[in-house]
Amino acid sequence: MNLELLNRLFVEVKTPELFGRYITNSDIEKCFGNLLKPQISSLGYSVEKRPIYSLKIGNGPIKILLWSQMHGNESTSTKALFDCFNLFETEHEISKLILEQCTLVVIPILNPDGAKCFTRINANEIDLNRDAQNVSQPESKILRQLYIDFKPDYCFNLHGQRTIFSAGETENVATLSFLSPAQDQGRQLTTNRKAAMTIIAEINDLLQAEIPNGIGRYDDGFNLNCVGDTFQSFGVPTLLYEAGHFKNDYNREEVRRLMFIAILKGIDVIINKVDIGKYEAYFDIPENAKCFYDIIIRNAKYNGVVDLVDIAIQYKETLIDGKLEFVPVIEEISKLNNKYGHKEIEANGYVVKTTEGFDLKIGFEIDFVIVNNERISLKS
After folding, report:
1. Which of 268, 290, 312 is the last residue of a domain?
2. pLDDT tens, position by position, 159-178
């Protein structure tokens, strides 16, 4: 399995019905008619009585459970999963091998209410990824019952992360991040944790050619309320995938492609027998830091202050009339020497104001700024 082949396949199988960040049940339902191989069923209903779908495909002995949009506003991996389903519809050798060796059960949207409202939480305002012990929500109950019934050999917990993350304390954005969750307070390196680490290390090795120094690793602080930590504690290798940011890719279409590759590579490593003796390469992946803003305006005069400052702007993702908008919000005004902007604007010592001539303030929502009489858009 190599990058050239996977990139070529992605172009052939990319699901045209799914685009952008706002992906709901109604979007994936439009894709079901194109899929002949999966067994598609409803496992039950969300708080607001939306169906939670499951797709089962393959007849192999290796059982892998995958779920996406546990957080409703994290949709990139959902798109990548449907691209994988389209691949499985073909007679390509990769498809045939996976379906012969594996049985995959996939929940593409675990939190359809959150997806509809574009929120992290469910309709009861519960973070489903902190409900692994209480199992208080219908969505949590459905995932847990599926886990019990299916008895997976591996779990892929698919998420999306904010644009703020860097791969280490560097100017390298974390386009993808991974974690082999801890399963106890001591964060012991158990066999199943090492298996998850090995898979992640091999995904990282493949993708370094595509996004050099662009992969991060999350801190493995233990929290048994998290689903990944809980499933890991059951002795099943569990991988956390996080889809992050790629340059000028706020719709996360490039990251979708990378997630497609990462999911398939993870399955490929499992099929080819996980060699846990290789787990130490996992620790070569730099730990995530928070070094980015969406925009930084450098070297600005501000509100009569003598010293030049930097102005950090972060997009607030807001659903307006059924469309996702990226609203620029002033996040910080100070010298940001160890921070980086996905876009940087040089003020060259000029005063930066709103289009109405007002001074900037933290918390302002602002689409344009005036720098040296030039009107500059802050929209994505």
Report:
1. 290
2. 999 999 999 999 999 999 99
Nearest to 323 by CA among 9, 23, 6: 23
Q: Is there a single domain that holds both residue 329 and residue 254?
A: no
pLDDT tens-digit series, residues 249-272:
999 999 999 999 999 999 999 999
Q: Measured at the alpha carbon of residue 194, what is the angle toward residues 170 and 71, in degrees to the nearest 5?
A: 60
252 touches 342 (CB < 8 A): no
Confidence (pTM) = 0.96
Number of separate domains in the chain: 2
317 and 277 housed in the same domain:
no
| One-letter identity of residue 294 | D
The residue with tokens 């102005």 is: 311
* Largest Cα span, the chain: 69
| Structural domain range at position 336 | 292-377
The answer to whether residues 181 and 327 belong to one domain is: no
- At residue 340, the 3 state secondary structure works out as strand
Tokens 């992906």 appear where?
23
Cβ–Cβ < 8 Å for 159, 74: yes
Instruction: Name residue 205's amino acid.
Output: D
Domain boundary among 260, 290, 320: 290
Q: Is the dihedral of CA 358, 360, 364, 365 positive or negative?
A: positive
Cα angle: 114, vertex 116, 121; to 5 degrees = 10
113 within 8 A of 122, measured Cβ to Cβ: yes
Strand order in the sheet with 176-179: 39-45, 51-57, 102-107, 62-67, 154-160, 238-243, 176-179, 215-217
Number of neighbours of residue 14 by Cβ within 10 angstroms: 19
